[in-house]
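Annotators were shown the component list below and the corresponding predicted structure, then asked to write short factual statements about the assembly.
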Amino acid sequence: MLTLQFVPYEEIEGLSSGERVRKLLGMVKDDKIVVLEGRLKKEEEAGLIRKTMEEINDRFKGIELSVIYPEKKKTIGRTIRSNIADMLLGQRQGLTIIGPASLIKEIRKDPDKIQLLTHDKNRKKKRKR
Amino acid sequence: MINVIQRFIQKVLKDLFRKKKHIKLGLYGPPNGGKTTIANRICQDWLGEEMGSISSIPHETREVNVKEQISIKSGKKELLFNLVDTPGIATKIDYEDFVKHGLSVKKAKERAKEATKGVIDAIKWLDDMDAVIVVLDSTYDPYSQVNITIIGNLQARNIPVLIVANKVDLKKSDIKKIEAAFPQYEVVGISAKYGKHMDQFYEALFALVG
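Structure shown to annotators:
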């Protein structure tokens, strides 16, 4: 059985970068597939990879990570609006999927749909969102 | 607009490099893209010696390696740099994958442990780079999150980037896909293994930091 854990942006909004990484990674280590509203900062994504590497052992093999972000053609007005919205509200646009590598073999983006390819002893399963 | 600002910042940085004696030029990318093969090719071309060992087993490079004082020339121009070959960045490392490549369980576990440390070091070194060559295997899908995270982090730090689409000698190679994935950066297609298009690579390197 797979558990999808939805994390609204408000849940990480007030946390520091380190706390965000620890919170999300903690859920993934509990074998949950995290569906985060919005995105982490680029430095936080690197921090998540770094922290993941520190935690890898015989049981925990790492993570699969994917960020879905609506890449509309950027006009000057849209860029300014988007940057102001990011500053005021945080990076709420898009969706971040993080899952344990022991469960998820690969995450594919298409770009409007996400495919989670899971590990299965007998056959591969595809789950579409 | 963002591209214009980015180009301006890169130009300012480039002007700064002209005044520096040795810039730190990093090789970054996912495992098995050919970073060490490119490092070896550059060192062979300009120093007559190799830099590190290569292997078909992922995570062969598990430590950051630095080759100092490489000087490359193009006409009257000269570029001096320290080349930093970094371990491949990954989000998962499973020792069982190394066992499948024929390693004993003990050696596979050791390799996995070293590889995780290597990824941490590679990320730590990001802040020290003056310019970076992102090395991608052109036979693979470039839209992986690791590639996007690496390039996003370089962009956030305003570090000039050149993308190398390696392994163009292979049939599955698709440079256009890499160009489409990262349109804001110059992409050079090469085969580091066979030395194909290295002249174009050096030209692009001069354009980046020369």
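Statements collected:
1. Chain A has a mean pLDDT of 85.
2. The two ends of chain A are 17 Å apart (CA to CA).
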